[in-house]
Design brief:
The chain has one domain. The chain has 8 helices and no strands. The longest helix has 22 residues. It is mostly helical and about 180 residues long. It is elongated, with a radius of gyration of 18 Å.
């Protein structure tokens, strides 16, 4: 459908629960510098969703990864915008090539850090944000959700972000090797 033919959905939820509004405010605060909408615009958008709680969960994932990566790497605004664009493609279910192309615009270490952070159940360098340093990793909830093969102990579907992020790390690594090879 051509973009000019797109129409806003009708309001499906005249009111949203207060707890959901607080979650929306947290998302907005996390990505304000790259997506500066008013709180009224945010709430209006979620009121138009059939299942606003599901959409809020997707945006929470984006906001969480965005904050973890951008705060840890001390990124400039231009790279934050590139990271946001890549993460938006991720939560919208874009294909691997689209996400990889957007990731290629980021510094390699930032892209790899983002892909690792996009794996919600896999231990990574982000664990210190969840589990106190003095707690042995074996007792952390993240470790308990990993099976013997190092994979998340949950059903995986085509397009699952764990598989996608691993594939994208491989794509970026191959691109780096290709750049370094004399040609």
């Amino acid at each position: 459908m051509p973009i000019l033919e797109l129409r806003r959905a009708p309001i499906r939820h005249p009111e949203l629960p207060e707890s959901l509004v607080w979650r929306i405010r947290a998302i907005r605060a996390a990505i304000w510098n790259v997506y500066p909408l008013s709180i009224d615009q945010w709430i209006d958008g979620f009121k138009r969703d059939s299942h606003p709680s599901n959409e809020v969960e997707r945006w929470e994932a984006l906001a969480t990864v965005f904050m973890e990566v951008s705060l840890k790497k001390g990124m400039n605004l231009a790279n934050k915008k590139k990271l946001y664009k890549m993460l938006l493609s991720w939560i919208c279910g874009e294909n691997k090539e689209t996400i990889a192309n957007e990731a290629a615009a980021l510094p390699l270490q930032v892209a790899i850090l983002a892909f690792k952070a996009m794996r919600p159940y896999e231990p990574s360098e982000h664990d210190e944000l969840v589990v106190p340093v003095d707690v042995p990793q074996e007792t952390g909830i993240l470790i308990s959700e990993i099976d013997d093969e190092g994979l998340p102990d949950r059903e995986l579907f085509e397009g699952d972000i764990t598989r996608i992020s691993s594939d994208l790390i491989d794509v970026l690594a191959r691109r780096e090797v290709a750049k370094e090879e004399p040609g």
